[in-house]
Amino acid sequence: MPDCRIIGTALDELDDGAFRGHVRTALAEFARVPVEEAAWRAFSDRLAYVCSRADRLANGVAIAEQALGSDARRLHYLAVPPA
């Protein structure tokens, strides 16, 4: 999975580090098997976060696409929490 980026987005004002911390906490709580540190580092390097206000998401996607090159493809996933 070296040629992918995962961009989290919500209305919360988080930076990449805070988002990665949230993901790490969720994995520790909900993963069925422990996540090895090397696997976490490789995975977390692909995580980014942008606030979904205005043009921030479009800018975050553009940055990820630029890092991946001209043949980058998009996959969108939408989940809305009960809150």
Question: Could you outline the blueprint of secondary structure elements for this entry?
Answer:
Blueprint: E1 6-10, H1 16-30, H2 37-44, E2 47-51, H3 56-68
Parallel strand pairs: 1-2
Index terms:
globular; 43% helix; 12% strand; 3 helices; two-stranded parallel ribbon; alpha+beta; 83 residues
Can you put this structure into words, describing what you see?
With 83 residues, this protein is an alpha+beta fold. The chain has one domain (6-68). It contains three helices and two strands; from the N terminus they run E-H-H-E-H. The N and C termini lie far apart (32 Å).
What is the CA-based Rg, rounded?
14 Å
Order of strands, widest sheet = 1-2
Helix content range: 40-55%
Helix-strand string: EHHEH
| Strands, total number | 2
**Largest sheet features:** 2 strands, parallel
Q: Count up the domains.
A: 1
Low-confidence stretches: none
Strand percent estimate: 5-15%
- The average pLDDT is 85
Distance between the termini: 32 Å
Structural class: alpha+beta
Quick overview of this protein structure:
The protein is α+β, with helices and mostly antiparallel strands and 83 residues long. The protein contains 3 helices and 2 strands; from the N terminus they run E-H-H-E-H. The chain has a two-stranded parallel sheet with strand order 1-2.
